[in-house]
Amino acid sequence: MSHGAPAPGLNTGVTLPPLEAGPHQRRLDLIAIVATFGGLLFGYDTGVINGALEPMKADLGLNTVTEGLVTATLLLGAALGAVVGGRMNDAIGRKKTLTIVAVLFFVGTLGGVFAPNLMVMLPARVILGFAVGAASVTVPVYLAELAPTERRGTLSGRNELAIVVGQMLAFIINAIIANLWGHHEGVWRYMLAVAAVPAAALFVGMLRMPESPRWLISQGRHDDALDVLREVRSENRAKAEMAEVEQLAQEEAESNVGGWSDLAVPWIARIVMIGCALAAAQQLTGINSIMYYGTELLKDAGFSASAAIIANIANGVLAVAGSALCLFVMIDRMRRRDLIIRGFIATTTVHGLIVITALLMPASTSRAWVILVLCVTFVFFMQLALNVPVWVCLSELFPLRLRGFGMGLSIMVMWLVNAALTFAFPSIVAFAGLAGIFGLFFVVGLIAIAFLWKFLPNTSGRSLEQLEESFASGNFS
Amino acid sequence: MSVMVAVPDSAEGALALTSAIAEARLLGTDVLAVNLGLRPISPEHLMSGETRITILERTHHESHAEVVLHALAEHPETERLVIGVKRRSKVGKALIGSVSQTLLLEADVPILAVKLPH
Question: Residue limits of the UspA domain (chain B) (predicted)?
């Protein structure tokens, strides 16, 4: 759902004995499942507002501005959580960070569930957002650092999938709760409360999980690192992997050397500008407006409130379908640049069709259905071509010594653009209607296509060194 | 005794390195080259004849001026610092600051500032 960053696949050149089956394999699977709860929670907590907003509006007396505020405060918290979470990862380790994140998920959830008014709701949303942002930078790193090289790609992908599955679950559970207890006062509180269950599971699970061997090595704790590797690998493989982990730890230290003062070099400034623009363009497709306000949007399109919350499930299902197809089929089949630009052409075309439908068709059930079909088509293409491929492209775009800074800045831009758009969305819809907001997405999409066509280099099929060499000599194709 | 030189990834950086090698030859000493670029210093700039060049790579996140000041602190044998300077726009200065200005004001060793011909 366009929030996380998969860890780049690194080739260290260390030869390792093959993976063997054994009890350590089950241990590794369990670790992956527990850590993926972080992704599920991320998805659930960002998606749950979608169905909860409508009953909450009446209960807490929200207008279009405060409605935007309730949704967007989570994202401001997430921007903060992404920065602070990254520092916590390095300072206190991945395991402690994820345990604290689980507690914050729990506290933020309870704060939202029992909030009597906005004065409690908004801080609770910031805390929850902080947990979401910190999880987004910690879970992929933790998974990648524990996974054997051969399975690193699939495990990082699993986190992306967990996020969209979490959103889909939120949409489904919202629809069930709305149908069973829709007449109860404060039914949205039930919806928010469900998120406490995976938060508790994450907390209990993390207490039993090992620390990341790479972090232990970065702290000079080599014996502890070897102990962890023995738990999740066969004996001879564990020893062989120590060398690889040490090399990766060193490479990671090197990736954090660059910073603001490197932007004085024109080709570097240009790469960073392209990265930030790509992150912003991804958010300005409006994907998260659908993921947060889908139910509201479908009501505006012509569905009744009870039908809209059910129809919204289709957005969740197609997001999962698109992500899965991307991870298992598309990602390595097409040049990165082509996939991303075609993705923008597809989403922008659908935006255009939605504008035409909203303008030309009279308000009716059939118009509502046409908009629903277009909406899920957009979500599908977005998840297929513009979510994981954009993050993989960013991780390949920056030279090694600038990667930490470049990725950090792009992720920051992504959260802030997401927050600004999310805050403004209800007001823009109230002012200009469906045609207005999708007209805006359409125009921004055209600009993004032109910009990327001119500036986006292709990052697939070349080594990072080759890319760096070509950018430095002024060749950005 | 050493001549230290700040080498950013630019024409000024290459010029500073050449000047530092000439200066070291004059003083009969060696060169400490602080690499401020994101890539290794290109070997063609490292042709130095007899003069020995030690390259100091950045190891963690710092601004360029801090990197050079810390290198100076770690190498008290340095007796000269060579930097390449160029005109910077006000906006550029506000955004990224001026490395040369910071070094001219903060460094405790004499500085040789060189610039490209107009």
Answer: 57-115
| A252 to chain B: closest CA residue | B60
CA dihedral A298, A302, A305, A310 (to 10 degrees): -50
- Domain that includes residue A33, residue range: 22-209
Fold of B2-114: Rossmann fold (3.40.50)
A9 inside domain: no
**What residues pair up with B78 in beta bridges, in sequence order?**
B2
Establish if A259 touches chain B: CB-CB under 8 angstroms. yes
Residue A207 Cα, gap to closest chain B Cα (Å): 32
Is the pLDDT at B11 greater than 70, yes or no? yes
Set of chain A residues whose Cβ sits within 8 Å of the Cβ of B103 = none
Q: Which of B7, B9, B38, B56 is the best substitution to test chain A (most A C-beta atoms within 10 A)?
A: B38
Give the domain CATH number at A54.
1.20.1250.20
Query: The complex's ipTM?
Result: 0.74
The Cα-based distances of A457 to A78, A271, A336, A381, A419 in angstroms read 29, 9, 9, 21, 28
- On whether residue A106 sits in a domain, the answer given is yes
DSSP B109: S
Helices A64-92 and A49-60: crossing angle, nearest 10°?
Answer: 130
Decide if pLDDT at A477 tops 60: yes
Q: Mind listing the pLDDT tens digit for each residue in B50-88?
A: 888 999 988 877 888 999 999 999 999 999 999 998 887
Residue A236 lies in a domain: no
* Residues A263 and A401 both lie in one domain: yes
pLDDT at residue A355, rounded to an integer: 93
